[in-house]
Design goal:
By secondary structure, the protein is mainly beta. The chain has 2 domains: 1-136, Immunoglobulins (Immunoglobulin-like, Sandwich), CATH 2.60.40.10; 138-293, Jelly Rolls. Helices cover 4% and strands 46% of the residues. Strands 12, 13, 16, 17, 18 and 22 form a 6-stranded antiparallel β-sheet that branches. It has a 4-stranded mixed β-sheet with strand order 2-10-9-6, with no helix packed on it. The longest helix has 13 residues, at 22-34. The radius of gyration is 22 Å and the shape is globular.
């Protein structure tokens, strides 16, 4: 019987010169020689999940339940709805379920942990771990003349056309001018898989008005977008490709005026997919800062 091997995602795909590595080429040659479906089986790793709490560690309203999706592909075809899905808790005290469409719902998170997701199709089992992190808001710092500054470097991910918060509260002490200046400088990334395309993201700052988070200004789009490109390896006797991901940039500068001097103002940064390019899992790194003035 031919042994079916899933794609080894730990194999380095390109070297420091951008050329296919020897390990990658040998892996593809082996998979093609076997003539099995494992070569095209792909389950992109979802972004880690971050659940936000207040200063005392109480999970904030609206954080749970948290629902997101995981996908499985056979080459470029989404076969998530024709796959058997399984979920288990690898560590921590998390309660979560998964539907047979790949929709994961976390209902409680305890102190965080790790979920293990398995998908089975064509006798090929793929598995990944999803960290579930708990992030507490930090108290605002007080600066000169009553103004303060607060920065976060912890961001959640998105995979939806509607705005979702990707930070905990960024709380700041307002200065004598009654203003909070806001700056988000983010690198936007996505997994390296089909389809080949550019993937836009919109971001916006929102202020807590005592009842809800409301827009500070208007949405800003990534420039450039994160993008996925491919390059063929036709000399391997088949049609494999190597895929490249170029990160996008999202820079949003806003200012909220009319605040009460010496009060504490709360802000969060929100983001969404540009539905015209695709709904796709996106992750963020960088800084989001509020400064009182």
């Amino acid at each position: 019987m031919t042994q079916v091997l899933p794609l080894d995602t730990s194999t380095p795909i390109v070297d420091d010169k951008g050329m296919p590595t020897e390990q990658f080429i040998k892996m593809w040659q082996k998979l093609i020689a076997q003539g099995n479906l494992a070569a095209g089986a792909l389950m992109p790793q979802p972004a880690p999940v971050t659940i936000y709490t207040d200063f005392a560690g109480t999970i904030l309203a609206g954080e749970l339940p948290r629902t997101f999706s995981i996908k499985r592909y056979l080459y470029a075809v989404d076969v998530s709805s024709r796959t058997r899905w399984f979920i288990s808790v690898k560590s921590g005290s998390i309660s979560a379920t998964i539907t047979q469409l790949g929709a994961i719902t976390i209902t409680s998170a305890g102190a965080g942990g790790v979920l293990t997701i398995k998908s089975v199709r064509d006798s090929v089992t793929l598995q990944c771990d999803i960290p579930v992190n708990i992030a507490a808001n930090t108290p605002p710092t007080t600066g000169v003349s009553g103004g303060g500054s607060s920065t976060t470097t912890t961001f959640g991910g998105i995979s939806a056309s509607t705005m979702a918060s990707i930070t905990a509260d960024v709380s700041v002490v307002v200065g004598s001018g009654g203003i909070a200046n806001l700056q988000a400088t983010l690198s936007v990334r996505t997994a390296r898989y089909l389809p080949v395309n550019g993937y836009g993201v919109y971001g916006i700052w929102r202020w807590w008005n005592g009842t809800a988070y409301v827009d500070v200004s208007t949405e800003v789009r990534t420039s450039p977008d994160a993008s996925v490109t491919q390059e063929g390896l036709g000399d391997l006797g088949g049609a494999p490709y190597i895929y490249y991901m170029s990160p996008g940039s999202l820079n949003v500068t806003s200012s909220k005026s009319g605040l009460v001097a010496a009060s504490t103002a709360k802000f969060q940064f929100f983001a969404r997919n540009d539905v015209s390019t695709s709904i796709r899992a996106m992750t963020f790194t960088g800084t989001a800062t509020a400064t009182g003035a």
